[in-house]
Amino acid sequence: MQGPVAKFVYVDGIRIHYVEWQGGEPTLLLVHGLSANARSFDLWAEILAPRHRLIAPDLRGRGDSDKPESPYGVEVHARDMELLLNALDIDRVVYIGQSLGAFIGVPFAASYPERTYKLVLGDGGGRSDDEAERDELFKSLQISIARVGMTFPSRDAYIDFWKGNPFFQPLWSKYLETYMEADLEVLPDGTARSKCRKEAAEADVASVINLAYEDLYPKVTCPTLLVRAPLGLFGERDYVIPPDVADRIVRSIPDCRLYEVEGANHYTLFMVEQPELMQEIMRFIEE
User: Fold this and answer.
1) What are the chain's domains?
2) How far apart, in whole angstroms, are the C-alpha atoms of residue 209 and residue 126?
3) Model confidence pLDDT, tens digit, residues 168-203
4) CA–CA distance, 47 with 95 (Å, rounded to integer)
C-alpha cells in the first residue's frame, strides 16, 4: 500500500493540513478525536486503502493545521470539512469520525446532506442527560486535555513518557508511535509539547455540551453506523456514549444501526487492531 501523502489547503483563511491515501471511490473523510491528529487513522488505513481514497485532515487547532485564537466548536469544524471538500473538488464522502470527529459528524451530515453519502460515528455523537454521567465523562476528558498543556525536556522524553505510561504500554505499536510523532512539537529551546492547542480542545468540549443534538438527528438522512465501545475512557462507566444515548441515537436518526465492539474501551476501539470492526465498516461502506 502506498503511504499517506501530506498536503495543505486553505479553508476560510485557515491553512488545513491533511494526509491522503490514494484509492477508489467512494472517498472516505476521516475526522479525528479531541486532542488527536490525522495520523490516528494509520491503523485503519491499512484496511481501508487502497480500496478507497482516504482524506484525513488535522482539525484547526491540531497537528500541522493553523491554530487561531478562535473560533472553535463542532459546528465550526463541520463547516471547515465542507469547505475542505469544496477545495478538493469532492462531491460526496463517507464521513468517518472518531470521538470528537463523531460529534462533528452529526452537524456535518445534518447541515450538508448532499455531501454525506454515509456516516460512521465512532463512539461519539450524543450526550447523556444524566448529570452524574456527564460529570464522570467530563473528569476523564480533563485528563486528556491536561496532557496537551504538558512540556517535556526533549523529544525523546515526550515519546518515552507515553511509551512508558501504564495505560498506553499494552497498546503501543508502530501506529501509535507515528501518531505521537505527528503530535510532537519541538520548541527552539529543545523542549517538546503537544501540537494541540489546549484552548481549542476546551472550546470544543463546551460546544458538545451546549449543542442540541436531538434537534439534528432527524436531519441526518444518510445511512448511519454508530460504533460504540461498551467500556469508558479509563474506567468501566465513564462512557462517551452510554447505552441509553446509543439507543436514542439509533431511534432518532432515520436510517441508523448500532455496532458494539465487545471488550473495547474508548481508546482500544481506535488504537488496537479490531478486525471485526473493520469488516463491519467495509460492509457498511460497500453495501
Assistant:
1) 5-130+200-286 (3.40.50.1820)
2) 9
3) 888 899 999 999 999 999 999 999 999 999 999 999
4) 16
